[in-house]
Design goal:
The structure holds two protein chains of two kinds.
Chain A: H1 19-23, H2 28-56, H3 67-86, H4 89-103, H5 111-134, H6 147-151, H7 156-183, H8 196-228, H9 241-275, H10 282-295, H11 311-339, H12 348-371, H13 373-379, H14 383-413, H15 419-446, H16 460-490
Chain B: H1 15-46, H2 63-92, E1 99-106, E2 109-113, E3 119-121, E4 123-127, E5 132-138, E6 143-147, E7 152-156, E8 162-166, E9 172-178, E10 191-196, H3 198-206, H4 214-224, H5 227-230, E11 249-251, E12 257-259, H6 262-270, H7 293-314
Parallel strand pairs in B: 1-5, 4-10
Antiparallel strand pairs in B: 1-2, 2-3, 5-8, 6-7, 6-9, 9-10, 11-12
Helix pairs in contact in B: 1-2, 4-7
Chain lengths: ~550, ~325
């Protein structure tokens, strides 16, 4: 494809092999890999906690662990998965790797800040892990007051401090991306020629720098109350416990979009590549992501319909929540329309993308049900909510992450993963996921509350199904870990552009050289400029 | 083994409405999901690589189509919002004829007290067909009073009163759960709602020895905590008389007016400086930490009873 590919220049992986060259690297590609290794570790730790939770829930009575342990396990699962896997996942791994490549830049705007953000992330992570592994935390990932501030005897503050610290890594990454996207685009790379992945990163970064400080403030206030007796959330001191929920969800609802928008970005790259046609409605897709980022800040109160919020508060938040669903719906329709008259190939990334669209649709629509006041009063804090957000977080965010990892694996490592194993794993995850979480919708409508260590016997069959699904899901997640690592030695050479994809990152060798582009790249005239053919007669 | 429920029983007047909204939305959501999945699979098959399907005139932008698929979902979702909001409104507004019962959440049990003084733990007996308003509070952390068969749920929040109501329309025994995570034994903070025929309910109320009505106990507490020292006609300290206050507007220092509801009475006892009635000096000491949660409820019940006495006089 490109002339540089043949040059014997060292790529970013071979340039410097020492530990020091990795730990002190300011190359955005290596930092992306540092993040990949760290969050994979966190993912499997969080997954181990989930496995124990599902084992406990096989039977109605508590038998595998003690109730205290169970509460610590679901808290560990939530805290690790949300703050240390989902939020950093796509932005910190794929975003770090791809943002400069996609816009034709040498690196991010602030390479040292980028490395610092990884260290901040690791410090926060180690802090929280230490709290979770030594004492444990039993507040749930939501840290509701006054339980967290005055009643829990567990290591709440060290875990919360870890979350506080890790927030700064989000802020630094977000800041870096925004500056990079504004100032470092290659000549000709205008806003409307940006790949949609970049738009997704931009929207995500905005939420990160606007929302994360609120989380930091909230955690700081809990600390002030716990240590110095400031009356903020504790009613005995004149505080208001519901204020905490407002502050917490003011960050944590937009945080759902921090986890989801990057997946939208990934799907926006995968779908055009494997339909070999431009994405349908480029401008609408970009606008929709920006609209989600903005509207996402206006709906936090839908987590609080039964908290004692006023009826009119409930009405307004319900109303606004329906609005935030519209841009997501439009994206689903546009992806579907992109398949129309495309040339669809069912590679592993495409399987993840199609799975994403289906599961995200279910997650989004059950979100509408939860935004509906009368229904939410019944299903709030039940397994219906658990099922809904796992359809969004796993069916949406994780499927997007895995799709993206497979799609750019050849670019990142220079090697192909084994396609047959890739498809098998994608299928296993899809089946395991649905078996795990679909029964939970029924459980929730039946009335089984979440975070229950023991439950009534009538819920057992559905819980056993869910646990069975979880074991399939676990196998599905372990498969890529094995074959992706093996592919580093056994995979066949990928070459610069194994998918025939469009985009600047595919015009340079795989793995890229340290400098990314040896000559200043020129942006293509249109994003996703796949040649359109009347009839596709290529042999399959 | 295969004999397990897939749908919760309906035990209250509101339950079928909630279910109706649910099935209405489920129908829409299922239709959309099937449509999307069908189109994805259909297009992915028809336009698979190597197929001879016609691919002429690929459209990459069509504003009309996009306006339609912004507009139609928006319209449908507004209908969903409205339908659910109407039923929510019905769930929220307590009917006039509702009888009251107090539920105090604490780690990890529900303490329930009927106005007549009858007390229960983790069980609530109610008569069939009678609307019941549950006034909720919490002694420690947030709990949530959840009766799946009635489709109602409300958090019990420390430091304030919340309430919910239901009108049971089937005799039987229904699950009561704590739905808000509250610590180690959260999943054991469960109980039963017993819906009884009115006659059986009367019999149950009268069983188990005589009880003191909450208002009577409240009157004794009102004296023993020294409230009556100031809030009585013979007092030398100028404090508002509380007869007939409950449920009526109270003008505050600074011009605002609040309704003297459970919250206001509670805050006036625990945080007396926060909302001082107009024309009075802020001299009342706080009772924070001295009065227990269940005692507060009794004092409130007493002040409520003063209000009712007064109204009867007005009539």
């Amino acid at each position: 494809m490109s002339a540089q590919g043949a040059e014997p220049q060292p790529n970013y992986l071979t340039a410097g092999q020492s530990v020091r060259s990795w730990l002190l690297t300011i190359d955005h590609k290596r930092i992306g890999l540092l993040y990949m290794v760290s969050i994979t570790l966190f993912f499997f730790l969080g997954g181990a906690a989930a496995t124990l939770v599902r084992l406990e829930l096989m039977t109605p009575k508590g038998d595998v662990v003690q109730p205290e342990t169970y509460n610590k396990l679901f808290t560990a699962h939530g805290v690790i998965m949300v703050f240390f896997f989902l939020i950093p996942s796509i932005p910190a791994v794929l975003g770090n790797f791809l943002v400069p490549l996609m816009i034709g830049a040498r690196d991010l705007a602030f390479p040292k800040l980028n490395l610092a953000s990884w260290y901040v992330f690791m410090i926060g992570g180690v802090f929280t892990l230490w709290a979770v592994l030594t004492g444990g935390v039993d507040t749930g990932w939501t840290f509701y007051t006054p339980y967290s501030s005055m009643f829990s005897n567990t290591s709440v503050m060290s875990a919360a401090l870890g979350v506080f610290i890790v927030g700064f890594s989000s802020i630094l990454t977000g800041l870096n991306f925004i500056v990079t996207i504004h100032k470092m685009r290659a000549p000709g790379m205008t806003w409307l020629r940006l790949p949609l992945f970049i738009w997704a990163m931009y929207a995500t970064s905005l939420i990160m720098i606007l929302g994360t400080p609120v989380l930091a403030v909230t955690v700081a206030l809990v600390g002030l109350e716990r240590f110095f007796g400031f009356g903020i959330f504790d009613p005995k001191l004149g505080g208001d416990p519901i204020l905490f929920q407002h502050l917490f969800w003011f960050y944590s609802h937009p945080a759902v979009y921090i986890m989801l928008l990057p997946s939208f970005g990934v799907i926006n790259e995968i779908v055009p590549c494997f339909t070999k046609r431009p994405v349908f409605g480029y401008r609408t897709m970009a606008t929709a992501m920006m609209a989600i980022a903005a509207l996402g800040f206006l709906v936090w109160g839908h987590h609080m319909f039964v908290s004692g919020q006023s009826m009119y508060g409930g009405l307004i938040f319900s109303f606004l929540s329906f609005f935030v669903a519209i841009p997501s719906a439009v994206k689903v329709f546009n992806w579907t329309a992109t398949l129309y008259k495309g040339t669809v190939s069912g590679t592993t990334p495409m399987l993840y993308a199609l799975g994403f669209i289906g599961l995200f649709t279910i997650g989004g629509l059950t979100g509408l049900m939860l935004a509906s006041l009368a229904i939410d009063v019944h299903v709030h804090d039940t397994y219906f909510v658990v099922a809904h957000f796992h359809y969004i977080m796993v069916g949406g965010a994780v499927m997007g992450y895995l799709g993206g990892i497979h799609f750019w694996w050849p670019k990142i490592t220079g090697r192909m993963y084994p396609e047959i194993w890739g498809k098998l794993a994608a299928l296993t995850i899809f089946i395991g996921f649905n078996l795990t979480f679909f029964p939970q919708f029924i459980l929730g409508y039946l009335g089984m509350p979440r975070r229950y260590y023991e439950y009534d016997a009538e819920y057992q069959v559905l819980n056993v199904m869910s646990t069975a699904g979880a074991s399939i899901l676990a196998v599905g997640f372990l498969l890529p870990l094995v074959y992706l690592i093996l592919s580093l030695w056994m995979g066949k050479e990928a070459g610069p552009n194994p998918w025939g994809a469009k985009g600047l990152e595919w015009e340079i060798p795989s793995p890229p050289t340290v400098h990314n582009f040896d000559e200043p790249p020129v942006a293509p005239e249109r994003p996703y400029d796949y040649p359109l053919k009347e009839q596709d007669r290529e042999p399959s | 083994m295969w004999d397990f429920p897939l749908f919760p029983e309906q035990g209250s007047a509101i339950a079928w409405r909630v279910d109706a909204v649910f099935f209405f939305e489920l129908a829409i959501c299922t239709a959309v999901t099937i449509m999307i999945c069908f189109l994805i699979l259909y297009y992915a098959t028809k336009y698979r690589r190597g197929s001879r399907a016609d691919r002429s005139n690929v459209v990459t932008d069509n504003h009309l189509i996009e306006v339609i698929w912004v507009g139609v979902p928006l319209a449908i979702s507004m209908v969903m919002f409205a339908v659910a909001a109407v039923v929510y409104f019905q769930m929220y507004r307590v009917p006039e004829d509702a009888s009251e019962v107090y539920a105090l959440g604490r780690q990890w049990m529900w303490q329930i007290e009927h106005p007549g003084g009858k007390r229960e733990i983790n069980e609530l007996h109610v008569p069939l067909g009678q609307a019941v308003k549950v006034v909720l509070s919490s002694q420690d952390v947030i709990h949530s009073f959840y009766v799946p068969a009635f489709r109602v749920k409300q958090d019990a929040v420390p430091g304030r009163y919340t309430s919910m109501w239901f009108r049971p329309d089937r005799v039987g025994k229904f699950h009561l759960y704590c739905a808000e995570y509250c610590g180690t034994d959260h999943s054991r903070m469960i109980g039963w709602i017993h819906v009884m025929e009115p006659a059986d309910y009367q019999q149950w109320l009268e069983s188990g020895g005589p009880t003191e009505p909450m208002a009577t106990t409240g009157a004794q507490l009102f004296k023993s905590y020294g409230c009556s020292g100031c809030h009585s006609p013979s007092s030398t300290v100028r404090a508002p008389l509380l007869d007939g206050v409950f449920g009526h507007p109270v003008p505050l220092e600074g011009g605002t007016v609040v309704t003297a509801d459970e919250r206001y009475i509670r805050d006036s006892i625990l945080l007396p400086m926060s909302e001082v009635a107009a024309g009075y000096k802020p001299v009342m000491p706080t009772f924070q930490g001295r009065i227990k949660e269940d005692e507060l409820l009794k004092i409130i019940a007493y002040i409520k009873s003063l209000g009712r006495k007064n109204e009867r006089v007005e009539q």
